[in-house]
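My main concern about presentation is that the manuscript never shows what a single data entry looks like. Each protein is reduced to its one-letter sequence and a matching series of backbone shape codes. For the editor and my fellow referees, an illustration may be useful. For illustration, here is how one protein appears when written out as sequence plus structure tokens:
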Amino acid sequence: MRVTAIGDCGIDRYVDLRADRPGGISLNFAANAKRWFDKADSIAVLTALGEDREAGIVEATIAGLGIGAFIAKRPGITPVQYIDRDARGERIFVRYEAGALAAHRLGGPEREVLRHSDVMIATVFTQILDFFETVAEAPSGGLRALDYCNLGTADEPLRYVQRYATRFDLGFFGLSPAQAPLIDALETIARERNRLFIVTLGPEGSLALGGRERIRAPAVAVPKVVDTTGAGDSFAAGFLSLYARSRDVAASLARGAEAAARTIGEVGAFPAPLVPWPADAPAEWAALKRS
């Protein structure tokens, strides 16, 4: 089985630790897919990186994980997500710089990669929307999944869901139980479009929308939450590793919960070294701290 994660591979810049580590939604997924999919399966990322120090960190990590890579190198910076954490280990997104990824567009060879993928997962958010449009329109022969980091715009809160639901077989959403009206709205869309939507709810578990009844699964308890960064990406990898073969939603939710639990007990979505900031790091990096 050929599995391709398309989109954000970059740097998670922890302002509380004054250190960087490789991350990004697509790399987080791929690293965990390597753990949860069968050993014989081929896992790859398709992304764009800049020509900077950060690109070297990401490329070395991808090679070390044994993940396939289709990387476009472009002028500019490698994507960077600035992250802080609160006392409970909850991730606080401070700022995102899409850099080279925002300027990239899929070309013919990259479209061929997707066309031959048995499983593909992409992510949509406002900063890379033009790039994502080229992903959404690219054909692929297998299971198509989409992580909705943004559901829409301020004027149209469900714009992206409405626009892209028919182009992907299933969608992932990270929400909270307090967003019950939004979950109801997603369920309506899933049923109307005959799609499967998976909603993760942090410690409240997860649920699947689109069938006659909702399917629920509890979260897996962990002794200590260290960092929730990438928990949703890990969940998606665990879920798809089973669902892609079995279409068993309940069992796949349970595996996704197990994968997420393994992630939140460590810094980042997968084991990787922290790289201390260089001595000449801009003062504004540390000034972004929000906890």
In short: The two ends are 42 Å apart (CA to CA). DSSP finds ten helices and 14 strands in the chain.
